[in-house]
Each structure stands twice: as structure tokens, then as C-alpha cells.
Write a structure and sequence with these properties.
- The chain has 2 domains: 116 residues, Aminotransferase class 4, branched-chain amino acid transferase, N-terminal domain (D-amino Acid Aminotransferase, Chain A, domain 1, 2-Layer Sandwich); 158 residues, Alpha-Beta Barrel (D-amino Acid Aminotransferase, Chain A, domain 2), CATH 3.20.10.10.
- It is built from 8 helices and 15 strands.
- Strands 7, 8, 9, 10, 11, 12, 13, 14 and 15 form a 9-stranded mixed β-sheet that branches. Strands 2-1-6-5-3-4 form a 6-stranded antiparallel β-sheet.
- The longest helix has 17 residues.
- The chain is α+β, with helices and mostly antiparallel strands.
- It binds pyridoxal-5'-phosphate.
- The site of pyridoxal-5'-phosphate (PLP) has 13 residues, from helix 6 and strand 13.
């Protein structure tokens, strides 16, 4: 397994980060995850645009332009012979003596990339449908930034794992914000696709945007508004989206069945459309 660290492709076992890295000390960094299908990156330009925006929001210089990022990702995928899975990218504010304020001007950011082999298309969970639990959203107020400070999600997703379910849907003021590592959707009894509008309360999901576009292109009505856990429980269908799950049907929320406890027809259709798009565009 070959990984990328600060300009070099090295064997995983040889890759190290200094203990004074601000990613390690302060979670002072940004990450991105793109899917790989058929050896090709899925919707990667949008992921790189979000990476650039997140870095800008916290004042870390983006070390590469989109073309260079893409070249490095493609080389990493090729070196690992990765046909299907994920590319993980992280940029931190670099290595400096521990001090909360930014390090001296010119401190180079730390850049790390690795791949993970994973079945993303023929995922058996998508056939069965996923169960989720709901948990309070304990995160900070800038969730639009894809920060590596993920403690609230670690705790939420551990609760989900302990409950034997696939994801935790987080809520705040009675409204679902998003999944621990995914965007939450419901389909109303009259067939409208509903997801929360973008704001600082949630991450602007790249898969969310693609699925909304596909839904609209195929004549479905998409409604951007927040919904409650109660509304989700009474919905016709529910699902979540992410670069690694694509479109994942939800069949149970907090132990109560949604949509008869089976992946719903509209969710299946959206997953199919997304897979087609991912396979075609690469
Ligand atoms: N929301 C959160 C909190 C996430 O961590 C993620 C992905 O990891 C998503 C949503 C889904 O985003 P994307 O579709 O870009 O993977």
C-alpha cells in the first residue's frame, strides 16, 4: 500500500507525521473524500472545490491547484491498483511549536493522501437498507467546513455502532441536521424529495448536490427544507448520501420502520441514477 505524504509517494509503513503537527495537536486541518469507481474518481472536481473553500475558510493556503490535486490522486489510485474505494486527502496547518495562534508565515501545510479499497457500488447494505438512530447534534457552529475536528461524529457514530446500526442522524432544535458522515433525505407521502437547505448548520454534501440534480432532471420535486425526526418516521421513504455510501436507503429510525421496512422505489431509482452517473462520468 502506497500513501502520499508531503510531496512523496511512500509505503504506508514508512509514512510518519511529526508529533508537533497541528492536525494532531489541534485538529487544525481540513479533509476530503472522493469515491473511486472503475479506477476513476467520482465527481472529483466538486470535492476539490469544497476542499479549496474549506481551507480558505480557516486560512490555510491550498498547496495545489485542482489539476495538481487530480494528478496526485490519479497517481495514488494507479500506484495502489485501486479499482473501487475511496481517496482520502488531508491538509493541516503544518508543524510548529505548540501555540494556539497560527504558526509563522511560510510554515508549509502538511498534506497526506491514502486510498481505501471498498465496495461502493454493489454494496449489500444498499439492498437490505440501513438502520439509523438519532442523536443530539453536539457540533460547533461552522459545520459547513470539512474540518478534521470530528469528535462529535466519532461519539455519534460509536453510539450507532453500539446500537448495531449504520448511521447516526443528528438533530438540533427538533430538526434533523445531517448524518454523522452523510446528508439526510426523506421522501414525503406525496413523493417530494426533501433535504435540509445549506447553511453553516451542515456540510454541503457533494453527493447531495448530484442527487438533487438527478432527481430534478428526472421530473421529481426537490424541496430544500429542514424536517423533524417525527416527519422522517412518518415519511414514505428515507435515505442518506455520501461519497462512500452513494445513495443509502434507510429502513429503520430509532427502531421504528420507515416505508414498510424495505428500501423504497424512489430511493432505489435515485441510487440507480447516481450509479449510472458515477460509472459514466468516472
Ligand atoms: N455530512 C457530513 C457531516 C459528512 O461528514 C459527509 C461526508 O463525509 C457528508 C455530509 C456527505 O458529503 P459528501 O456527499 O460530499 O461525501
Amino acid at each position: 500500500r502506497i500513501v502520499y505524504v508531503n510531496g512523496r509517494f511512500v509505503p504506508f509503513e514508512e509514512a510518519t507525521i511529526p508529533i508537533m503537527d497541528r492536525g494532531f495537536l489541534f485538529a487544525d486541518g481540513i479533509y476530503e473524500v472522493s469515491a473511486v469507481l472503475g479506477g476513476r474518481l467520482v465527481d472529483n472536481a466538486a470535492h476539490l472545490a469544497r476542499l479549496d473553500r474549506s481551507l480558505g475558510e480557516i486560512g490555510i493556503r491550498n498547496p495545489y491547484d485542482a489539476a495538481e490535486w487530480t494528478r496526485l490522486e490519479e497517481e495514488l489510485v494507479a500506484r495502489n491498483g485501486l479499482a473501487e474505494g475511496l481517496v482520502y486527502m488531508e491538509v493541516t496547518r503544518g508543524v510548529a511549536e505548540r501555540d494556539f495562534a497560527f504558526p509563522p508565515e511560510g510554515t508549509p501545510p502538511t498534506v497526506v493522501m491514502f486510498t481505501q479499497a471498498k465496495t461502493v457500488a454493489a454494496n449489500p447494505l444498499a439492498e437490505r437498507g440501513a438502520k439509523v438512530i438519532t442523536v443530539e447534534d453536539l457540533r460547533w457552529k461552522r459545520r459547513d467546513i470539512k474540518s478534521v475536528a470530528l469528535l462529535a461524529q466519532v461519539l455519534a457514530k460509536q453510539q450507532a455502532a453500539a446500537a448495531g446500526v449504520a448511521e447516526a442522524w443528528m438533530h438540533e432544535d427538533g430538526l434533523v441536521t445531517e448524518g454523522g458522515s452523510s446528508t439526510a433525505f426523506i421522501i414525503t407521502q406525496d413523493g417530494r424529495v426533501v433535504t435540509r437547505p445549506l447553511s453553516t448548520a451542515l456540510l454541503p454534501g457533494i453527493t447531495r448536490r448530484a442527487v438533487m440534480r438527478l432527481a430534478e432532471e428526472h421530473g421529481l420535486t426537490v424541496e430544500e427544507r429542514a424536517f423533524t425526526v417525527e416527519e422522517a418516521l412518518g415519511a414514505a421513504e428515507a435515505f442518506f448520501t455520501s461519497a462512500s455510501a452513494f445513495v443509502m436507503p434507510v429502513i429503520e429510525i430509532d427502531g421504528s420502520r420507515v416505508g414498510g421496512g424495505q428500501p423504497g422505489p424512489m430511493t432505489r431509482r435515485l441510487r440507480g441514477l447516481y450509479l449510472e452517473m458515477a460509472a459514466a462520468a468516472g
